[in-house]
Design goal:
Layout lengths: L1 H12 L24 H10 L5 E4 L5 H9 L3 E4 L2 H4 L6 E3 L5 E3 L1 H7 L10 E3 L3 H4 L2 H10 L1
Parallel strand pairs: 1-2, 1-5
Antiparallel strand pairs: 3-4
């Protein structure tokens, strides 16, 4: 049992250290924190007098619509996550694995002209979108 535990510890720690010994501070990586000013800058844009054209790619949010239209901005909503569940998108790739038809998905969604939007709200869509659609969607944006 001790050799099994020792092997697992080697896998998770990446060394052959004694299983009862904690890694030294030099072996642990300090988590770096980083701050983004993107949301603050976006807030400044929304507060400006200049009307913006906004595309919100999440589910429709009455609060977002009220906030943006109340400041004179135009908002379009398109829920790409729901659209990606269309069973008509299911195909098989060259290896016979199930995937989604990204060309059809883009033909049916995000069919806007270039430069139509000043802001695209995408938040965490890529975390939940099928992996086969992430790259094509980001390239389209």
């Amino acid at each position: 049992m001790a050799s099994v535990t020792h092997s697992f510890m080697k896998i998770f720690r990446g060394s052959s250290a004694d299983p009862g010994q904690l890694p030294s501070p030099a072996q642990t990586t300090k988590r770096l924190s980083r701050r983004s000013s993107g949301l603050a800058e976006l807030g400044k844009s929304f507060a400006s007098e200049e009307p913006l054209c906004v595309l919100d790619l999440g589910s429709t949010s009455a609060a977002n619509i009220r906030y943006l239209t109340g400041r004179g901005h135009k908002i379009y909503s398109e829920d790409l996550l729901v659209a990606s569940t269309d069973t008509a998108l299911a195909i098989k790739d060259d290896a016979g694995n199930p995937t989604l038809d990204s060309k059809r998905f883009l033909a049916d969604n995000l069919a806007y002209g270039p430069g139509q939007f000043d802001v695209v709200l995408c938040w965490n869509l890529a975390d939940y979108l099928d992996e086969s659609l992430v790259k094509p969607v980001v390239e389209r944006l």
